[in-house]
Amino acid sequence: MDGGMCDVVVVGNGIIGLSTAFELSQRAADLRISVIGPPAREGAASVAAGAMLNCFGEATVSTLGDPASIAKFAVTRAALDAWPAWLDKLCDAADGARARRSMRQGTFIVLGAGAAESTISNSHAIRSALATYDEPFEEVVPAEIKGMAPEVNSRPVRALHLPREGSIDAREVLALLERALTTRGVDVIPGTVEQLVISDGRVHGVRLAGGETMSAPTVVVAAGSLTQRFIEQLPPGAVPLMLHGTGLGVLTQRHGVPGFGQVVRTPNQSGACGLHLVPLDDLGHEYIGGTNLPSFLPSAGPSIGVSFNLLRRACEDFDHRLGYSRIHRWLVGRRPVTLDGFPLLGAAPSCRGLVFATGTYRDGFHSSPVIAAHLADVVLERAVAHPYFDHFVPERPPIERTSVAAAIDEFIVHENDDAVMLGIRLPYCVAPESISGHYRRTAEDVYSRMAEPIALLPEILNAVNNEPSECLRLLNPYLRAVRERYGAWVAPRALWCAG
């Protein structure tokens, strides 16, 4: 491969990389495109995804709280509309192959009797977003949901049905994309890109782990959580840091009882996606997920405690009969999480020809059709169709949704709720405020050690607290470089209206 050349190299063979390559091949048939990534995709978010097609189901109290969050929500809304036609296009391109299990439409959102404060607030936010955008939904009786058999003390008190949301089999869609790319003449190359080849202010290609090079005037970095190695090749502070959001999914099969017919999930809770169960077929195969552990360095995987609590809560909150299901496979992936929680989508001005396509956090699979269309516009230098992508240019200071003081308050709520979900019970003589005080001191200590305190998401603040020395060693030089590069930047108002 040394000395090989093409028009566009896509670094990464996850959902964003493959989708972008496919969209480019559809629009410019004569474009020479190469996708480079390891076939096993070990640790990649795409292969471990439950692939819920949830937009309103992911809404939280901050979803419509500031311009960048509203723009991100607009992307997910556009993707919700785009998926049926996108799937048809993929199947047609893959020699007419049809996805064996296709899309499953319909999502139930249940609020359990023991839901914590942030979960309840996010439940209200879902209702508000549904009303704001006139999205169809139905109030349903939780006990009438097919497959719902929670433990007595965890019975849901409220449930919504969203007919347009649902799921798709992640692993099947990846295979479908690979077949479609092959028919379009796109080279899918096994390997790992270690470095960008940059000189004179532009990218000239990539260097692989084995030392080979691939030359190209355009490089699309869709390397997920491993993007930080490429960010470090750009000027310090230019692009937000990339973290690793470790998530766990479990593939199971029912034993002797019918399962759920549609996705069942909770609202998002405690800095993580909601607990969810995704039916994969009519043979009882299901996907159970709902974990999120951001870290500045790659994690070896979730702990026993996290794994135990995921399965315990699925049995307690959804169906106690899940205890009889057989585990077929444990899935561990690392979501690409930027320091500010917003994606990196677009061209990098400091390096001509370099395009970023990553940082999608929990929305990558769902949003991939719309993101792929946008990135094709960028690569082909066409007019960008949707201005909401302007918020996510890769070279920017970190976006602050709120103030540091408000971020600390949010962290306290999420940590308290985490304790509740994990089963904490306080005696009558211990006031809940005593625990809140502990979390406040924890957050204030972290902020006191930051070179340039900025408002962080609760889960990212928690990542710094868990490994302060290592995290601050990476974070503080970045924050100083941001200040030097961009000067003072102002946090947005705490609340914005959706209009």
From TrEMBL:
SUPFAM superfamilies: FAD/NAD(P)-binding domain (SSF51905). Residues 7-377 form the FAD dependent oxidoreductase domain. InterPro entries: FAD-dep_OxRdtase, FAD/NAD-bd_sf. It comes from the Bacteria. Keywords: Oxidoreductase. The keyword Cytoplasm does not apply. Pfam families: DAO (PF01266). Gene3D superfamilies: D-Amino Acid Oxidase, subunit A, domain 2, FAD/NAD(P)-binding domain. This is FAD dependent oxidoreductase domain-containing protein.
